[in-house]
Amino acid sequence: MQKVDQIIKKMAAGGAAKLHILADFDRTLTLAFVNGVATPSITAILRDHNYLTPDYPAKAKALYAHYGAIEKDPKFPKEKKKELMNEWWRAHFDLLMKSGLSKNDIAQAMASGIVQFRPGALEFIDTLHKHDIPLVIMSASGIGEESISARLKQENRHLKNIHIIGNAFIWDENDKAIGFREPIITGMNKDKTMIQSFPAFEAVKDRPNVILLGDNLGDVGMVEGFPFQNLLKIGFLNEPTPEAAEEYAKHFDVIIPDDGPFDYVNEVLKKVIDNADGYARG
């Protein structure tokens, strides 16, 4: 852990004023399993709990059957995969609109108890707010911005220091989805080169120390394009296997296994903010 200690020491020297957090949402800030059941995506909740039109589940599953195998194929050419993932999301967004998606559907789905924050994650969010440290949440979820906003509001945590970069819909006067915002974010283009198109960039451009939180190997790419000075990558390995642990160790500085809590993340944050344990002086 000597490398990690050195990173934290350098971050502590800059303190809260030079720090920002870059985090995934699903299965990172939130639990991967609730009551022993894997937490589904927001679109899966809408699909499997009959929020939309009766034909939506079958059509959504057909899209997944076609594109899902491509997404999971590690040998599929990256540029072509990027193009097809964009195509998939566009087709799914069109389907969601035709299926009557509303803001109320999203709020109800997020309030269903299926999506729960990790133990310690709300404490983490509160500490960031107290010290005015930006939290950039980047999500490639099909309904990222609205669903994350809804869940934060339900916990009274929709705070001014939180910036959400995710897919978003355009709504009519009855809160029905009638369009979607460009650019579309997928798991293949979820990197920080996009942040310059969002208000979040102004909040973090002068904060070169970054704590990155993610649960997928692709989440490491969120920081690409940002000129950081110090970077600590913390990975949540929710379903550990020896093979996965070996691969995560190549990409993340610290691994939290077994759908673990935010205890370690909160300890690191405290050290950076308080310059604790001699990190700033050592």
Describe the model.
The protein is built from ten helices and ten strands. It has 282 residues and is an alpha/beta fold. The model has no long low-confidence stretch (mean pLDDT 91). Strand 6 and strand 7 (177-180) form a beta hairpin. Strands 5-4-1-8-9-10 form a six-stranded parallel beta sheet, with helices on both faces. It has a two-stranded antiparallel ribbon with strand order 2-3. A two-stranded antiparallel sheet has the order 6-7. Helix content is 40%, strand content 15%. Helix 3 packs antiparallel against helix 4.
Short description:
Helix content is 40%, strand content 15%. The longest helix is centred in the first third of the chain and has 21 residues, at 78-98.
Element layout with pairings:
Elements: H1 2-14, E1 19-23, E2 33-34, E3 37-38, H2 42-48, H3 56-72, H4 78-98, H5 103-110, H6 121-130, E4 135-138, H7 144-154, E5 162-165, E6 169-171, E7 177-180, H8 200-204, E8 209-214, E9 230-237, H9 242-251, E10 254-257, H10 263-274
Parallel strand pairs: 1-4, 1-8, 4-5, 8-9, 9-10
Antiparallel strand pairs: 2-3, 6-7
